């Protein structure tokens, strides 16, 4: 989703469907176990946030998850990973069908994550930033015992402030680099990206997590970009001052989270690379997917525990990945260090 700025810079079209699913149902969609389906793609960093938060909070049993494949055409994400090419719960081949079921004249981008109302087959929301906050604050009656507080009230102002800077300069900043069409626009985005990464390095040099001493929403939002940095953004989006592996503090921070249950076990490096390098033909006309990078480092010691901190606060780690939701073998950071 992008808009023409006239100066070669990339601007994300951020007019999302802002209907919310709330405990009191004030938008017409009350929280109800089994009623909604979270549609995601493992390749997408915005969707990856929702996958992580759903897993950390233990919502698998009340909010089902549909997986789109890593590539798509101009019309829509598709359910090509399912045996017959249809989502087994929604019965549709394209996520677009759920959007059009609610808005027959919908003309904006068909994006993930999206939450779909199963009985009606209609999309409820694709507002990725609000989806994860609502999972933390509106679905509390259905959190697992020991679920962490990812958006604690006492830290919300600081989380919001840090998350906004990360979104502007890092999450969206890599796209502003990759989709710039003028040299100066690219250089502005590049400078802002690495200035913010330097700022994050300074912030994280003496504390384990971004806000407070536990994992919060801010960490989830930064992690999904860092996880894709060397595999995609460094080369494909020309974010090449350094690789993540050449930024010691951020590399250790990213490994710490990757090795925390709920984070690394959601990362599919194969699908991530397929999405960016196959779909973005204006940047990569051949569609060739690179074989690297070596992934062995993701599983090496990080020593961030020496900074203290309690990953889940007074809570506990999530249990094993739900049946049918594991990253396929060979798609993660395998012991041999290569995702085939």
Main features:
340 residues, 6 strands, globular
Give structural notes.
By secondary structure, the protein is α+β, with helices and mostly antiparallel strands. It has helices spanning 45-57, 96-102, 128-137, 156-171, 173-178, 183-204, 217-233, 248-258, 269-279; strands at residues 2-4, 10-12, 36-41, 64-68, 114-117, 122-125. The strands form two sheets. It has a four-stranded mixed β-sheet with strand order 4-3-5-6. Strands 1-2 form a two-stranded antiparallel ribbon. Helix 4 packs parallel to helix 7 and helix 7 (217-233) packs across helix 8. The longest helix has 22 residues, at 183-204. 33% of the residues lie in helices and 7% in strands. A hairpin with a 4-residue loop joins strand 5 (114-117) and strand 6. The chain has nine helices and six strands.
Short description:
By secondary structure, the chain is α+β, with helices and mostly antiparallel strands. It has 9 helices and 6 strands; from the N terminus they run E-E-E-H-E-H-E-E-H-H-H-H-H-H-H.
Number of β-strand runs = 6
Shape category: globular
Oligomerization category of the chains in this entry: single chain
Span of the ends, CA to CA: 30 Å
Number of H- or I-type helical stretches: 9
Show unreliable segments.
none
Quickly give the structural class. Answer: alpha+beta
How large is the share of residues in beta strands? 5-15%
Secondary-structure element order, N to C: EEEHEHEEHHHHHHH
Average pLDDT reading: 95
Spatial order of the strands in the main sheet? Answer: 4-3-5-6
Using only C-alpha atoms, the radius of gyration works out to 19 Å
**Main beta sheet:** 4 strands, mixed
Secondary structure: helix percent: 25-40%
């Amino acid at each position: 989703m992008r808009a023409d700025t006239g100066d070669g810079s990339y601007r994300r079209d951020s007019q999302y469907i802002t209907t919310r699913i709330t405990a009191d149902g004030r938008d017409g969609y009350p929280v109800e176990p089994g009623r909604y389906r979270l549609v995601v793609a493992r390749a997408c960093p915005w969707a990856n946030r929702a996958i992580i938060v759903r897993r950390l909070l233990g919502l698998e049993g009340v909010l089902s998850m549909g997986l789109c494949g890593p590539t798509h055409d101009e019309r829509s994400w598709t359910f090509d990973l399912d045996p017959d090419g249809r989502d087994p719960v929604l019965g549709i081949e394209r996520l677009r069908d759920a959007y059009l079921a609610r808005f027959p004249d919908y003309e904006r981008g068909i994006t993930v994550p999206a939450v779909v109302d199963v009985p009606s087959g209609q999309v409820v929301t694709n507002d990725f930033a609000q989806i994860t906050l609502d999972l933390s604050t509106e679905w509390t009656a259905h959190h697992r015992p020991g679920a962490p507080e990812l958006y604690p009230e006492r830290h919300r102002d600081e989380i919001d402030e840090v998350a906004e800077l990360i979104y502007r300069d890092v999450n969206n900043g890599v796209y502003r680099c990759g989709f710039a069409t003028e040299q100066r626009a690219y250089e502005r985005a590049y400078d802002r990206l690495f200035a913010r990464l330097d700022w994050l390095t300074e912030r994280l040099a003496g504390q384990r997590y971004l806000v407070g001493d536990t994992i919060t929403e801010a960490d989830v939002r930064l992690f999904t970009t860092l996880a894709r940095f060397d595999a995609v953004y460094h080369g494909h989006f020309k974010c090449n001052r350094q690789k993540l592996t050449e930024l010691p503090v951020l590399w250790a921070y990213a490994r710490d989270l990757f090795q925390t249950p709920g984070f690394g076990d959601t990362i599919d490096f194969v699908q991530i690379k397929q999405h960016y390098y196959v779909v973005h033909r204006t940047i990569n006309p051949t569609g060739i997917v690179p074989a690297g990078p070596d992934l062995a480092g993701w599983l090496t010691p990080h020593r961030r525990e020496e900074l203290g901190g309690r990953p889940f606060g007074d809570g506990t780690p999530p249990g094993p990945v739900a049946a049918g939701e594991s990253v396929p073998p060979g798609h993660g950071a395998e012991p041999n260090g290569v995702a085939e």
